[in-house]
Amino acid sequence: MGEWHVEAGRGRAARAVVTVGAVAAGAGLAAAGFAGRPAALADVTWYGVGALWAVWLPVAVGLLLTWVLGSRTGQVDLDLRVREAMEGHPVRLELGLLVAMLIGYALGTAGLSTVIRQVSEELPSAVALPVTRLVFLFVLPVLFVDQGGFSTSGHGTRMPALSLAVREPWRWLGLVTVAAVGAPLLVDLEPSDAPSPTGAFLVVLAVLVGVSAIEEIFFRGMVQTRLELLTGRTGAVAVTALLYALAQAVSSHFNTYGPLVGEGVAEQVSVAVVTYGVQGLLLGYVWIRYRNMWINTLVHGVPLVLATLPTVAGQGGLG
Q1: Cα(36)–Cα(105) distance, rounded to whole angstroms?
Q2: Which runs of E-coded beta strand occur in 79-199?
Q3: What contacts 149, CB < 8 A, 6 or more positions away?
Q4: Whole-angstrom Cα Rg for the chain
Q5: How far apart are CA 235 and CA 313, in angstroms?
Q6: Rounded CA separation 173/65 (Å)
Q7: Which of 131, 153, 142 is nearest to 97 (CA)?
Q8: What is the spatial distance between Cα 59 and Cα 62, in angstroms, rounded to a whole number?
Q9: Which of 70, 72, 112, 292 is the most buried (most CB within 10 A)?
Q10: Highest mean pLDDT among 17-26, 214-223, 300-309
Q11: CB 159 within 8 A of CB 220
C-alpha cells in the first residue's frame, strides 16, 4: 500500500511539472514579443477585432458556462468510456507520430508555399495551407495513428464513435458555449461585411470542414486525449493549447485572410499565444466536458467564420 502511495505521489508531481512547464513556456513566449512594451497587449487584434472583445471575453464566458452546464454525474461515466476507448493504443508512440506530423505540417507548408511562389506570382501562397492541413493533420494521423494497427481489433473506431455518435442530451449543452463565443463577433458584424450568399456558404463550408473539423480532430481528439492519459487533464489542455498556438502562428504566416499582426516573428508568436492559445484552453476544456466533436468544431469554427466573412468580402473573395 505504501509503495502505491509513493507511485501515485510521483505521478501527481510529474503531472504538476508538465502543467507548470507548459504554462511557463506559454507565458514566456507571450512575454517575449511584448518585452518592454506591455501596453502593446491592449492593441492585440484577432482578424481585425480587438482581442478583448473577440477572444478573451468570449473565452472567459465560455469557460464559465461549460463549467456550470457540464454534467457532474455523466462526466464520470464519460471519462471511463474514454479510457476504455484508448485501451490497446501505444500512447507514447502515437504521440511521437503526431508531433512528427505537426512538424511535417510546418515544414510542408513552408516548402509548398515556396514552390507555389516560384511557379506563379498570381497564385497566393495560402493555397498551400488546405493541402498540408488535410495531409498532415488529418489523412496521415487517421491512417497511421487513429486507425493504424487497429482495423481488425476495432480499437481504432471506439474514440471516433464516442465523439461523433453523441446520444446523451447533456453532451449537447455545449451549444450554449457556441452561442457565447460567437455572439460578440455577430453583434459586431455589419450586413455590408458579408460576401454574397453563395460566398458566405463557401466560407462556412471551408472553415467548418476544411479548418475547424480537421484541427479539432487532430489537436483535441488525437493529441489531447492521449496526453491526458500521461499528464492528466490540466497538463494535457495546457500543452495542447500551446501546440495549437504555435501551429496557428505557422498557418497565419502564410494565410492571406488572417495574418497575425506583429513586428517580427517573436511578436507574431506572442500574438498567437495570447489569442489562439487562449482559445485553445477553452477548446480543450469543452472537449474534456463533452467529448463531442461536433460541439468542438462549432466552438472553434463559428467565431472563425464570423471573423473571416468581412475579410473575405473586403478582399473581393467569394463574392
Answers
A1: 33
A2: none
A3: 156
A4: 20
A5: 39
A6: 9
A7: 142
A8: 5
A9: 292
A10: 214-223
A11: no
The pLDDT of residue 6 is 43
Distance of CA 291 to the CA centre of its chain: 14
Least confident of 45-54, 95-104, 249-258: 249-258
What is the torsion angle, in degrees rounded to the nearest 10, for the CA atoms of residue 261, residue 264, residue 270 and residue 273? 70
**CA pair distance 155, 50, nearest whole angstrom:** 44
Q: If you search the block for the grid coordinates 495542447, which residue do you land on?
A: 240
pTM of the model: 0.91
- Phi, psi torsion values for 97, nearest 5 degrees: -65, -40
Q: Where are the alpha helices (DSSP H) in 34-71?
A: 51, 57-69
d(Cα 225, Cα 229) in Å, to the nearest integer?
7
| Host H or E run for residue 166 | none
Do 20 and 231 touch, CB atoms closer than 8 A? Answer: no
Tens of pLDDT, residues 156-215: 568 888 999 999 999 999 999 999 999 988 887 776 666 778 888 888 999 999 999 999
d(CA 244, CA 139): 18
Choose between 212 and 50: higher pLDDT: 212
Task: Dihedral sign for Cα 101, 147, 78, 12, please.
Answer: negative
SS3 50: strand
- Confidence band for 140, pLDDT divided at 50, 70 and 90: very high
Q: Give the integer Cα–Cα distance in Å for 306 and 240.
A: 24
Are 228 and 87 spatial neighbours (Cβ–Cβ below 8 Å)? no
Q: Are 109 and 189 in contact (CB under 8 A)?
A: no
**Are 229 and 252 within 8 A, CB to CB?**
no
